[in-house]
Amino acid sequence: MSEAPVSDDFFKPLPIDSGALWGQQTQRSLRYFSIGDQRFPKAFIEVLITIKKIAAEVNLAKAMLDAERAHAIVTACDQLLSGGYDDQFPLHVWQTGSGTQTNMNVNEVIASLANKQLESLGAAINVHPNDHVNCSQSSNDIFPTAMHVCLSHQIQRDLLPVLVGLIEDLESKAQEFTGFISVGRTHLMDALPMQSGCPFGAFAEDLSEVKGDIASGLERFYALAVGGTAIGSGANAPDGFGEAMASELSKVFELPFVSAKNLYTAVSSEKSTCFISGLLKSLAVCLFKLANDVRLMGSGPRCGFNEWILPANEPGSSIMPGKVNPTQCEALSMVCLQVFGNDVTVSMAASQGQCQLNTYRPLILHNLYESIDLLSDSIQNFSQFCLHGLLLNEQQMKQNLANNLSLVTLLASDIGYDAASAVAHYALENHCSLAEAAEAKGVDDKARFAKKMSEKLKEAVDAR
Length: 464
What we know:
Elements: H1 24-32, H2 42-61, H3 67-81, H4 100-120, H5 129-133, H6 139-176, E1 181-186, E2 189-195, H7 198-217, E3 223-224, H8 241-253, E4 258-259, H9 263-268, H10 271-297, E5 308-309, H11 327-350, H12 361-387, E6 391-392, H13 394-402, H14 412-415, H15 417-430, H16 434-440, H17 446-462
Parallel strand pairs: 3-4
Antiparallel strand pairs: 1-2, 5-6
């Protein structure tokens, strides 16, 4: 039997779950949006609570709240931030696109705790989740504000430090392997020689540039929508509310938050999250190449390149005894693919803002938070369990270098491109050395050619 329709201004109350501090809006969301298992991260809920605490203090200073209610709200927020209330925030990611239900979940829980406090003091007033906890605010400016604060804090706290660590580890490997010579490869074919540390220095430089881009890109996250309320006009918020909120949030999170120059833009646009997502994708692109090169150079141990020796952390096969696989490379590359997919989702969601609001914010937050979380963890694991213990297989490298026909390129300026090509082809077809091929083709004496080659090789490698 279907329920009778309700009027525009009345919703039939639902029974509240036993032990719950939330109210009707949270309960209604639990009933109508039981979709998937994904919840908002605890860190995001804590940011929302912190915003509510600061808002109560700013509203008190601007005479929007009386001292009794403001104090009760602040105390309730402190109580929640101290821990033990995770079960009071049960809503799913897949809900209203503005995040209103999660904003109200936080408002309702804070109001319940504040009212318990007021009741214990014998106060004759109460705290309303909308009128008081949500005073001078709207979900439309508070949810994106919380997104920016949470994600920028996550990047600064979790991602950038492990990325710096990875860059330092790569630079250390570049120094450690200086003095050894490897075969370079282009198109996966033998190419000119290089110092063995050069690829690691290249990785470090690549990642350093991306790290700088991410750090600079965070400036877009520091502009907050708070104070814009429902559509960016600031209706129902006192003058200076957004600026005061941004100032206090800067102190708490030690990041340079400011009120957005145009609050209409801040409330309606998700260009900044799309931009940051693109930078995370760029990081994943660099990491994917790193992971693939490491497992390619470590392939073998007897039938692959086998120039880099990867740490053996665990058995690699349930059927082949003694097999060890490049599992850290595989895990890192899978994370990169997930980040690529998340970026596509964020891009599409950011493009769907209509008029004065983007209603895909829970999805955007979920994907960005996951990308940052996965990248942070996988980078740390890769550094610790793969890069730290990576060694060179000097014997294999010397053998590969001796067999490298592209070394003849170093003498091409002396003997000419055509003669060098003829020497290389003869050596390949006749399974002999370049020096032997040079003598057979009448290009030079074998011993003299070998001596010139050795000198050119030293010059080429030392120059780098």
